[in-house]
Amino acid sequence: MGDQDLLDCVIIGAGPAGLTAAIYLARFRRRFVVIESGGSRAAWIPRSRNHPGFPEGVNGKALLSRMRKQAEKYGTDIRTGRVERLVPLKSGFRIETGDETFRARKVILATGVIDNAPEIPGLERGVEKGLVRICPICDGYEVTGCSVGVIGRDDHCAREAIFIRTWSSDVTFIHVGAEPLPKALAADLHKAGVDIIESAVPAVEIQKRRITAFDFGGGREAQLRRRLLRARRHAARPTRRPGGRQA
Ligand SMILES: Cc1cc2nc3c(=O)[nH]c(=O)nc-3n(C[C@H](O)[C@H](O)[C@H](O)COP(=O)(O)OP(=O)(O)OC[C@H]3O[C@@H](n4cnc5c(N)ncnc54)[C@H](O)[C@@H]3O)c2cc1C
Q1: What are 9-28's pLDDT values in tens digits?
Q2: How many angstroms separate the alpha carbon of residue 61 from the centre of ligand 1?
Q3: Which ligand 1 atom lies nearest to the CA of residue 40?
Q4: What distance lies between CA 60 and its chain's CA centroid?
């Protein structure tokens, strides 16, 4: 490989971050490629309502497609592949996918994060339908006045349940952690007016545009139906946040 093969940059990932970088680099007339393995979290967004410039909201796949089109308009080369290895060289990097090898002065890691969601049957379908939300920053507004269940297994999730009180007076933290909730944390939740349920969630039941039940097993579903499922029709649906990382 000669110096003529040395790229200015390789961007790993073609989610919103990688494509934004690509639009800029293409317009700066840099020599670069984008390598994308497929699986942007943005593709899961049924409709984002907090993205500036889209007053009616925007679907995640549509957003990605528009961004990709914009990057390609300026000549961006987007390859499909998974970067398996990054090798630092004296000057720059060697970037290896299963099929191809590149050399570049710089690498932009735009690989995003992976959600660490609890394995609950029905949850994925809930996300697709916009009934299960991942991010209180993006979606808190959508649950204004709704009954909200926040599923989580740690301190961070409990704090997010408290944060959701910004929009709703009816918030329940559903603690699915293996360890009992620390007393001090439970006290903070109570003080903030957040109810607590300590139970695993074997399944989520969806009816039309609502989550109508959590299956807590042992006949507890009916008991919870009232508390958690009072979502108003005009507002977005009950939200819960699978425990783990977020954007
Ligand atoms: C259900 C849901 C709803 C959301 N709603 C909103 C919202 O309303 N508003 C908002 O602002 N945000 C929202 N988000 C968050 C938003 O999707 C992320 O913030 C955004 O996708 C992050 O962009 P990114 O480019 O950093 O990462 P990603 O979009 O995850 O893109 C990273 C890309 O890197 C690729 N990649 C990773 N490793 C490699 C590798 N080794 N080789 C090649 N490619 C690789 C992946 O395939 C992926 O395509 C939501 C997320 C989810 C899941």
Answers
A1: 999 999 999 999 999 999 99
A2: 11
A3: 49
A4: 11
